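Hi there, hope your week has been kind to you so far. No rush at all, and the record is pasted right below.
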Amino acid sequence: MEMMEEQQKAAEKQEQELIEELEQEITELKMRNTELEQTIFSVFSVDVTLDPDTAHPELILSDDGKQVRCGDIRQKLPDKPERFDPGHCVLGKEVFSSGRFYFEVQVKGKTDWDLGVARESINRKGEITARPSDGYWTVALRNGNEYKACDDPSVSLSLRVKPQRVGVFVDYEEGLVCFYDVESSSHIYSFTAQSFTEKLYPLFCPSLNYGGKNSNPLIITPVN
């Protein structure tokens, strides 16, 4: 009887070890697949610069147009039709109406942000609802640890690590917008089967600074 129990325990242990090995192999395959995707995406990397004419009056842009954060003072700027107000957002200068493109943004140290792409005809005045039907394809962070994809409807995201740098890939013809955690080589979210008919712009929303808690800038970084 004892021998049978020992044999059963040995068989169960062997089975558990096999399961763990398979799970490890699956994880490694997924990582290699994601790394391959990111390598492919990097071929389509573009040099994005922020457009000051679209920036909300409280946003502060760096001189090189690669960083944006929210300040405490509303600047006296011309109220142009292309300027966001009251949404704390800014677009990239680069416009895309075909092909594929990819860019990366550092989000390190921030508690709130929105990133993605938007179509040219979006509403930039008044209340903004970030969702594909209104021309926004974005992911967002709220309260330091609440990630979501701003889809129709919104989708809560459970991420195993906190992204420090986010990659955004768009395939215009395929109607695809993908978001990746660059450092962990993991997929965040994808909008698929979208129908793009207008020009698309990179979109950056650093959110309010909340008394310094969210004062770090969003930084457009070179793709390695």
User: Anything to note?
Assistant: Residues 2-42 form the longest helix (41 residues).
